[in-house]
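One such shown below:

_____
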Amino acid sequence: MPSLGAHQLSFGQQKQRAADIVRLLSIYMDILDSYVIEFFSENLWEKVPRSWQATLSALTAPQLASLLLENGSSVGQESVWPLSLLAFKAAARSLALPRDPRGVSPTPGEAAPGGSKEPEEFRANRSQSSRLRHLFRRHVKPKKQHEIRRLGGLVKKLCDFTGCEHVLDLGSGQGHLSRYLAFGHGLQLTGVEGTEELVAAARRFDRELLLGLAKEARREPKAGSEQPNWSPDPPNVRPPRHLVQWVDPEEEQDLERVLGLGPGQGPAPLVLTALHACGDLGPATLRLFARCPSARGLAVVSCCYMKASAEGGVYGPPRGGYPMSTWVQGLPSHQLPYKLRETACHAVEDFAVRLQGGSRELRTHGYRAALEVLIRRINPQLRRLALHASRKTHLLPFQDYAREGLQKLGLDPGTPWDTDEVQSLLGQEGKVLAYFCLSLTLAPVIETLILLDRVIYLQEQGFQCQLLPLFEPRFSPRNFVLVAAKVRGQLSHLLCPEEGFGCPERGCRDS
């Protein structure tokens, strides 16, 4: 049975889910807290239960995708799976929150027409969303087009629900979401970004869009052409206000300071939003919402969990990124080392597609693990060195890959090695992939724990909140949005998943 979404779980069930995940992760911590590049040098295969080894090593790449990363059945396979491996897979499936935005998982191995991972809105043109006006597509990559359209519609609904016209976009970057909310939905926007270059670009793009709107207003409509149901009057639109400001997670900042207001100039009621709030920005936004009375609504999509400070980190709780809630802090063995938080950021659906297609890029995992053996032979003190390989690495023979890699690492590319030994290592590529897939199977479970911790934190403060998948996961892997409100009324009714989360721009229907 598919796992229930966070919006379908009671507060008590959410806490129990977090406790169950902590227990599951503690069982497999040896596998999770290891690096696949050390597969040979640290003999990682021995960490896999003996009863699993024969089954996993016999699986092809497409079978690893279907039977581990997706919801395929092992019935009909030549080997009978050990009960403990079946239990591992079932636990991962039941504890991870569903990631499909419609609440219905796709058929295992099913791909879009032509093998494309793009949502339907990009089927006609892979770089142009058919549901976003061309003015909002300029300078915006397809993935971001998909994200600003869906999150923008959700923020507009949240503003209507909370009675707010002002939105504070934290980590606003080049202002793509801010522009869409301001010009597409008529909201008052303030974008906060710590990088001056990005703010300068945002202001430049604002001017370009205003010029585009002015040209459209002067242009005579073509006979028989369908015009949008809305056409902002350039003199009356409110361009976003962009601020160069840093939201410091170590300080208990208030909205007045973030917005640059003077003493006694309290902000009007507003909604906080952040699209892919990196590292500690997500938790900092949640704390800002909880602390500031003027913040009535919240819609945050977080990413880069490994960059957030965790317990035992630089400053850790109560200002760190994990754990945030009192409940999770009280669970034995709740700690998430860096490696686990990094695993939670993997694009599992995309990797499953590559496995299903037997992509030659998969060989790079075995290549890098074999190269690690050679590196340590040269210098045992060198471990896990970052190697930025070329995009065509998988097309190279191992000899060329190894020499290129050694040279990039400042080591002698002419170092001899035992060819037979290397070929023996490369012949175990299937085991390397299987080991990597074991960690990826639990990646959505780890992300679920991190996000449930944040949901529980807000509910401990007395706020109603929901956690929902908003984007298509194969197109935008960090696809959960955390929504919260401080007003009366049922937030769950506003964000009913059957509605598709969309509030498309006027004149467009979101299917």
